[in-house]
Amino acid sequence: MISASNLKVGYEDKVIIENLNLEINKGEVVSIIGPNGCGKSTLLKSLSRMIKPLSGEVFLEGKRIKDLKGKLIAQKVCLLSQHNNAPMDLTVEELVYFGRIPHKKWFETKTNNDKEIVDWAIENTGLSKYKNTPIGALSGGERQRAYIAQALCQKPDILLLDEPTTYLDISYQLELMELVREINEKFKITIVMVLHELNQASKYSDRLIIMKDGQIISDGRPNDVVNKDVIKKVYKIECDIDNDPQSNKPRIHPIKTIKAQRLVS
Ligand SMILES: Nc1ncnc2c1ncn2[C@@H]1O[C@H](COP(=O)(O)OP(=O)(O)OP(=O)(O)O)[C@@H](O)[C@H]1O
């Protein structure tokens, strides 16, 4: 449904991603993992057309994304970035309503249908009691849910989430991961997210894309791609891996950095 062919992306004269090929299928939950600076966010931005590639193409439902109208892309693809900076005095309801904008004509006012969709999104993210609360008065986890509600309200086919659990405590992290799975299962929204927490990526994703230095090193089901060698190659750490009995997916136990080993030997 969204794919990249021979993608080359960079900033000014710095090439970040090169020769990248990727195909995301409808209904998948995909996590992109890899070390800091390897190009994960750059890839998400390219998939949403926020960044224009230096060469290569991104296709949305078989059509070149660069040829599509911005409004059509906004109806189908939603990118939730790490740095959400809506004014803190907006209420949850006002913030969520912004998700309707791609579906509206210029100067078209809020309809009953919009109100129903806003309420539906707020309810499905468990925020009903905060509907009239300014987002500045929410906890980090609640605010993150409000942004997810805004994305739901947009009714996208594909939701791109850039480090959605950053700054959240473990309880909110799990809550958010469970919400992501629920959204995927209930509303058939395809999810592509960047995660740093490897065990959450393994547990909650159908597929992992492992990146290093702007390249995809491995791509497949967690059980097929997670192994000690790939973790060592990508993160320069030693680890143990066992099976999480609950999810039947690989669980990674970091031991030490390779650099630390060199220092003592
Ligand atoms: N707007 C920009 N202008 C110039 N360089 C940039 C810009 N945005 C990102 N970069 C550089 O591109 C490289 C990849 O950044 P990107 O944010 O895609 O990595 P990432 O894998 O998402 O990293 P992290 O895990 O730290 O969030 C980094 O070296 C970064 O400094």
UniProtKB/TrEMBL annotation:
Keywords: ATP-binding, Cell membrane, Ion transport, Iron, Iron transport, Membrane, Nucleotide-binding, Transport. It is a peripheral membrane protein. GO terms for biological process: iron ion transport. It comes from the Bacteria. PROSITE patterns: ABC_TRANSPORTER_2 (PS50893). The keyword Cell membrane applies. It is found in: Cell membrane. This is Fe(3+)-citrate import ATP-binding protein YfmF. It comes from Romboutsia hominis.
